[in-house]
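Notes to self after the Tuesday call (sharing in case useful).
The group wants a holo model before anyone commits to mutagenesis around the pocket. I volunteered. Ligand is fe (ii) ion. Logging inputs and output together so the record is complete.
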Amino acid sequence: MAELNGIYKCNVCGNTVSVIEAGAGTLVCCGEEMELLKPKTKEQEGNEKHVPVVEISKGNVKVKVGSVPHPMEEKHYIGLIQLIRNGDVVAGKRLKPGDKPEASFCLDSTEGIKARIWCNIHGVWIN
Ligand SMILES: [Fe+2]
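Result:
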């Protein structure tokens, strides 16, 4: 069964998907089961280029990827920044090479907000 809001990757072709609605089936691509990219944290790997840095001021949430800015090159970049509350995605922004590895959002409530990011090489990270 797929995990709701989970990000899965095909380790053959690189297709990466996010689950909007979870069904009973297994996600398969290129004839193989897709890998669930489990969010990594500072505690697990301590990589300062991936752990999102979140600044909250009133209803504004600014997310920077890394205390040292992550590269945004053609072959290595941050492709997605999402805000998560209680496991649900409440906001998100797609990024592409050349963009700054950051995003700003305006929310009605910032209670319990966390940031999740996806690096095309190093996977999913959460603060
Ligand atoms: Fe990376």
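Two things stood out.
The helical segments are 42-45.
The domain at 42-126 is CATH 2.60.40.730 (Immunoglobulin-like).
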